[in-house]
Structure formats: structure tokens, C-alpha cells
């Protein structure tokens, strides 16, 4: 598996997350196993990307950063990008991360919109 595969899987998972979230909201479901499953799935995929990227860059992973990537990716991934990139590439890496974050949001919104547009009985 490559980093590109992991990014595609993250976008696909977010699309599915949007569908499931819209369904849960329209059917009045308060809590379900999907929240736990999706959290584990996203953590696994983000850590997989981090592992592949750090191996490709010969960046030594620390236990604390490993834990941070799994538990607080929103903070740990930008930290990793800044630490693992040469001085001239740090800003570009952070901009690509922000762009990917926007793509993730768009995928979630698209999934919810598709569900609401095509689900029977949803006004």
C-alpha cells in the first residue's frame, strides 16, 4: 500500500462517514457503533500514512509521536510535517495538509448530501 492509497481510503471513509452520519441524524439515532468503528478506522489510516511517510523519509519515529498521531492527529500530524521536512518545504507541506483537510470536509458533506438527496422519506 502506498501513501496515495491511504489518502484515497481516508477520503472514501469520510464519504461513507457523511452518509452514515446523515442517516443517523435523520433517524434520530443518538449513539451507535459506527462512531467507535470510524474513529478506529481513521486512526489506523492516519497512522498508516505516517508510517509510510516516515519510512520514505528515513525519519525516526518516537513512541510519543506515535501515540500523538493516534490520539491527537490534528496536532501531531502538523508537528510531524514541520519536523520531518527540510526548511524550504515545511510551509508547502502544511498547505497540502490544509488542502487535504478541506477535501476531507468536502467528502463528508458530499456523503451527507447524497444520502439526503436520495434517501426515501427524507425531506
Note down, in words, how this protein is organized.
By secondary structure, this protein is an all-alpha fold. It has one domain. The chain has helices at 3-27, 33-56, 63-71, 73-84, 90-118. Helix 2 runs antiparallel to helix 3, helix 3 packs across helix 4 (73-84) and helix 4 (73-84) packs antiparallel against helix 5. It starts with a helix and ends in a 5-residue tail after the last helix.
Care to give the gist of this entry?
This protein has 123 residues and is an all-alpha fold.
Mean pLDDT: 93
Write down how many β-strands occur, each being a DSSP E stretch of 2 or more residues. 0
Largest sheet: none
Which structural class do you get from the secondary structure elements?
mainly alpha
Please state the overall shape, judged from the principal axes of the Cα atoms.
Answer: elongated
The share of residues in extended strands comes to under 5%
Q: Which range best describes the helical content: under 10%, 10-25%, 25-40%, 40-55%, 55-70% or over 70%?
A: over 70%
List the total number of helices.
Answer: 5
Low-confidence stretches: none
**Terminal residue distance:** 41 Å
Order of helices and strands: HHHHH
Number of domains: 1
Rg over CA atoms, rounded to whole Å, is: 17 Å
Keywords: Membrane, Transmembrane, Transmembrane helix
Question: Which key features would you list for this structure?
Answer:
about 120 residues; mainly alpha; 5 helices; about 0% strand
Blueprint of the fold:
Blueprint: H1 3-27, H2 33-56, H3 63-71, H4 73-84, H5 90-118
Amino acid at each position: 500500500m502506498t501513501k496515495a492509497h491511504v489518502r484515497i481510503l481516508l477520503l472514501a471513509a469520510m464519504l461513507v462517514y457523511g452518509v452514515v452520519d446523515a442517516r443517523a441524524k435523520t433517524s434520530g439515532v443518538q449513539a451507535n457503533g459506527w462512531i467507535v468503528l470510524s474513529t478506529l478506522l481513521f486512526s489506523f489510516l492516519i497512522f498508516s500514512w505516517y508510517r509510510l511517510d516516515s519510512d520514505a523519509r528515513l525519519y525516526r519515529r518516537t513512541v510519543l509521536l506515535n501515540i500523538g498521531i493516534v490520539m491527537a492527529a490534528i496536532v501531531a500530524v502538523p508537528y510531524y510535517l514541520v519536523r520531518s521536512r527540510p526548511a524550504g518545504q515545511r510551509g508547502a507541506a502544511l498547505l497540502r495538509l490544509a488542502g487535504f483537510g478541506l477535501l476531507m470536509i468536502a467528502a463528508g458533506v458530499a456523503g451527507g448530501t447524497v444520502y439526503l438527496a436520495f434517501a426515501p422519506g427524507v425531506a
